[in-house]
TrEMBL record:
It comes from Megasphaera hexanoica. Keywords: Aminotransferase, Transferase. Gene3D superfamilies: Methioning gamme-lyase, C-terminal domain, Type I PLP-dependent aspartate aminotransferase-like (Major domain). This is Aminotransferase class I/II-fold pyridoxal phosphate-dependent enzyme. InterPro entries: Met_g_lyase_put, PyrdxlP-dep_Trfase, PyrdxlP-dep_Trfase_major. The keyword Plastid does not apply. The keyword Flavoprotein does not apply. It holds the Pfam family Met_gamma_lyase. GO terms for molecular function: transaminase activity.
């Protein structure tokens, strides 16, 4: 804890700044409790829906936002943007190597996937990583040559070993794209990145971005959904794709009401800081007991993910068990590696979430293969991370 103190202070400062941004936005939008009520049917003049769009747009410095419980996941939200903005013959280019696993299905990346972008006739290009980092020269050359309709910039490392992009990285990348191909739409996959820094990708020049509400911006209590924010014409196109051409964002009811979305977004800067502090603490503990970790506990962070190289299958299982026994939900079950659709290797997962699959809540997972890397993410209560991480360390040390 003492070793982490400087990092914790840095993280708390970011949370303070971001909480101020959220408060300012709520005041400007005159948020009141009557806007939290549920609606039915078409949801015409649904005040909660409209106000939620407004506060997301203000906080993220976007012209417009579309915040909807109707998005089933982050992938659905990101796919809505891609499908709305890309037509047959258009070129889409990923600038940071291979995109996140579930986005590969949307693209039709490695293998035939029905209804994918490739099946629609969209041309997919990719600028590979260079020495496991983004390659500005490669990006410049590729964008100059292909003049892509849209580039995809994934902020978080996802399940790869590259570094997460910082806001200055995103600004540099977008600067190069706009210089050589000014009409290209710069789209940021912001999953896991929200509130990890004092600025967001729109401020770094992105035209549009999207993310999941069961990650950072839901604050651990939004029950489902996703958001899109950016240039008004692009957000409108995505809204037309989500509902129907001509309907856009003007329709859509939610019977349960919007309190959890407003409260979650209010809590999101603090909750994101809890998760990042948990990741820093885990890095410090596992470094001290002799495991390689990435990022190191004293490196700056731009997302929630901590990787720990556990050296063998046994340690991965012990780690997952140690985390699971300290979950608020399903603490009595034992995670074991098993096959999962879409994965070649067995996967182990530890999670005890209140919101199913929520990765802003503490979870750990990884494929059972070299280099036996476990991905630890989330944690809405820092004290929980401390107890769970110490439990995981104890399981491994006691079974050496
Ligand atoms: C989580 C995530 C997604 C997809 O979100 P789901 O809600 O799991 O569909 C996409 N990109 C990145 C970088 C993510 O972390």
């Amino acid at each position: 804890m003492a070793a982490c103190a400087i990092q914790f202070e840095r993280i708390d400062t970011i949370a303070l700044h971001n909480t101020q941004k959220v408060l300012d936005a709520y005041k400007k939008a005159q948020i009141s409790s009557y806007q939290f009520s549920g609606t039915s049917g078409y949801g015409y003049s649904d005040m909660g829906r409209e106000k939620l769009d407004e506060v997301f747009a203000t906080v993220f410095k976007a012209e417009k936002a579309l915040v909807r419980p109707h998005f089933v996941s982050g992938t659905h939200t990101l796919a809505t943007v891609l499908c709305a903005l890309l037509q047959k013959g258009d070129c889409m280019m990923s600038l940071i190597g291979a995109p996140y696993d579930t986005m590969q299905g949307v693209i039709g990346y490695a293998r035939y996937t029905p209804h994918s972008l490739k099946e629609k006739g969209v041309l997919y290009e990719e600028v590979p990583l260079k020495q496991n980092a983004y390659d500005l020269d490669g990006i410049r050359t590729a964008c100059q040559e292909k003049q892509p309709r849209l580039v995809l910039i994934q902020r978080s490392r996802g399940y790869s070993s590259r570094a997460t992009l910082t806001i200055p990285d995103i600004r540099a990348i977008i600067g190069v794209v706009k210089e050589v191909s000014p009409d290209t739409i710069c789209f940021v996959d912001n999953c896991y990145g929200e509130f990890a820094a004092e600025e967001e990708p729109i401020e770094a020049g992105a035209d549009i971005m999207a993310g999941s509400l069961i990650k950072n911006p839901g604050g651990g209590i939004a029950p489902t959904g996703g958001y899109i924010a950016g240039r008004a014409d692009l957000v409108d196109a995505a809204a037309d794709y989500l509902t129907a051409p001509g309907l856009g964002g003007e329709l859509g009811s939610y019977a349960y009401g919007y309190r959890l979305f407003f409260q979650g977004f209010f809590m999101a800067p603090h909750v994101t800081a809890q998760a990042i502090k948990g990741a820093v603490f885990a890095a410090a503990v596992f470094d001290r007991i002799g495991f390689h970790v990435s990022p190191a506990f004293d490196e700056p962070r731009s997302d929630l993910i901590q990787t720990i190289y556990l050296e063998n299958e046994k340690n991965m299982c012990l780690f997952a068990q140690g985390i699971q026994t300290f979950s608020p939900v399903d603490a009595h079950v034992t995670p074991i590696p098993d096959d999962m659709p879409g994965y070649a290797d067995k996967i182990i997962m530890a999670a005890g979430d209140f919101v199913q699959g929520s990765s802003i809540e503490l979870s750990a997972d990884g494929p059972i293969r070299e280099p036996y890397m476990i991905y630890l993410q989330g944690g809405i209560v820092f004290e929980h991370n401390v107890l769970a991480v110490l439990s995981a360390a104890r399981y491994i040390l006691e079974n050496k």
